[in-house]
Design a protein that fits this description.
Order of helices and strands: HHHHHHHHH
Strand content: under 5%
Low-confidence stretches: none
Number of domains: 2
Number of strands: 0
Oligomer: single chain
Radius of gyration: 19 Å
Largest sheet: none
Helix content: over 70%
Mean pLDDT: 92
């Protein structure tokens, strides 16, 4: 359930974009009605309206996501705060300038923030964030925790580069599909590979 909760803005972004593609005139009407006041330089075209509408919905969903947690007095993960800040800045720029370049950069900036956070915490503060997250579930030798932290850093850095490649070498529709399904598939594949790697140490511990 937490996984789906974290993906809530992404799922809505995908759904609204797909709806907007199939109902371009309706999407343009909604953008003109609700977003015209925060856009520079006039109305959005029917072609651009789906991504603008999806971006606005993702921003609102991210705000609602954190608002829900705060209202229930639950802890808001640092990842959610970072994601909110990035979607507000890059999503807001996308809507204001009517330019999808900014929202295409959003996943990359988020991935790179994660990669930098993992490395900086490990190198400068001697704190392994992956270990902090997983040590209650699995016991590993100290060197393995270091390798795992580095592996996640490299993975996030690579995901950021891959997002840029898809975003600026393929159509907007392909990028949105990749953002929803491609990144999720790669994440699952990486977690499975990690589990296979860790299985050796789990057996040794037993």
């Amino acid at each position: 359930m937490k996984f789906l909760f974290d993906l809530f803005p992404v799922i809505l972004f995908f759904g609204v974009f797909k709806w907007g593609e199939g109902h371009a005139d309706a999407a343009q009407g909604l953008v003109s009605q609700y977003l015209s006041g925060v856009m520079s330089g006039g109305a959005a075209t029917a072609t651009l309206a789906p991504i603008l509408l999806a971006t606005a919905v993702a921003i609102v969903a991210s705000l609602a996501q954190i608002g829900y947690l705060l209202a229930r007095r639950k802890k808001v993960d640092g990842m959610l705060w970072v994601s909110l800040a990035i979607i507000v800045v890059f999503g807001g720029a996308t809507i204001y300038f009517r330019d999808d370049t900014f929202i295409k950069w959003k996943p990359t900036i988020l991935y790179w923030c994660f990669a930098v956070a993992l490395l900086v915490s490990q190198i400068f503060f001697k704190k392994n964030l992956i270990r902090t997250t997983m040590e209650k579930q699995v016991s590993l030798p100290e060197p393995v925790w270091g390798k795992l932290n580095l592996a996640w850093s490299v993975f996030f850095a690579a995901m950021g580069l891959l997002n840029l490649y898809v975003a600026f070498n393929y159509t907007l529709d392909v990028w949105v599909n990749f953002k929803m399904f491609g990144t999720m598939g790669l994440m699952f594949a990486f977690i499975i590979a990690q589990s296979l790697f860790l299985s050796k140490y789990m057996k040794d511990a037993e």
